[in-house]
């Protein structure tokens, strides 16, 4: 097991020598420093697990200032060493983030106990954080729903690039989950503990967008009665998501380009340069190259933001994703409404799969929740759907909107319907359903996995 590494910061040479020997005898690797400036130099090459810090180091006796002097230890335990008269200062230091304190003269046995407990607690906290991050990553991927080849490709690409800071451009029709993909990129990245700030470039009036992004000083314009940080600053250390970036006015595109080039900007009305460190993810339902050609989008900005491009597809091109989306939205609906969630019958499932959904996932979810609200049983039937969509009663479910689908999509939809019907007829018995369909049990399981059928 690797030895724990400790940094002892104290301005008394005799104490440094004695305490260092005690800690070394206890099995630790120890480095020492006489003051905060030396401590900052040591941590450049010595990745310590814990710091022992004399509270009375010159030039300040303020515990907040002392603790902040070595920011590398913001996430590591710090044990304060004090004189007899510094108890109140030591307690204040603990309130400011220190783990514990010891009063001089130090007892070697007590020193060993406190250090061991601090390291043990810190290790448990690190393991808990890793578990939470792992769970967060699973949840992020679970929101990228679908069994279609296009969704599988998106999931694979998101996992490969999330840990990097490469800029990403997400393209595709409205309602296809571009923001969901952007959030997954953030949640799987090293910036996951930082902010995720979403800005819809077309929803903010052009004359307000600069102030919203860059912030403003007090008195910068009429109504600016106080200083306000912009969304760029709020996103510092995290991810900035610019939705529908193709609708950003040209003057703002110039200013955004400078931010991307230099990582700096001035608030509206301000003279103090602001520095930021953000990852940019952009999204658009427009063809930006067409906008470049017509002069409404800057070519240099396009090449700055495109980085890796992720393309989403309309729901009509991937009907095999619909069963999984239905199940996901019904589970959410059940939690939100605190009532049993109905599941669609084979006929109702076929109806959902067969529709073209011009509004894509957004329209699918809205329609599903409306039908679930009128459904009175555990099974969502065509009668429930007909209450909201009367035209569905008089038209063949299999033929509904089929003229808008490709032959390939119709074949997939028919196969899902046949699988669902067979499973329902056999009360979920997969062996019997496979025999009914003329498949092996393994063949049935592969098709069920492909289409997200449970």
TrEMBL record:
Provenance organism: Pokkaliibacter plantistimulans
Identification of the protein by name: Response regulator
Keywords: ATP-binding, Nucleotide-binding, Phosphoprotein, Transcription, Transcription regulation
Domain Response regulatory, chain residue ranges per copy: 5-119
Signal peptide: none
Start and end residues of each Sigma-54 factor interaction domain: 144-373
SMART domains attached to this UniProt entry: AAA, REC
Taxonomy, superkingdom: Bacteria
Pfam families hit by this protein: AAA_lid_14, HTH_8, Response_reg, Sigma54_activat
SUPFAM superfamilies: CheY-like (SSF52172), Homeodomain-like (SSF46689), P-loop containing nucleoside triphosphate hydrolases (SSF52540)
Modified residues (4-aspartylphosphate): 54
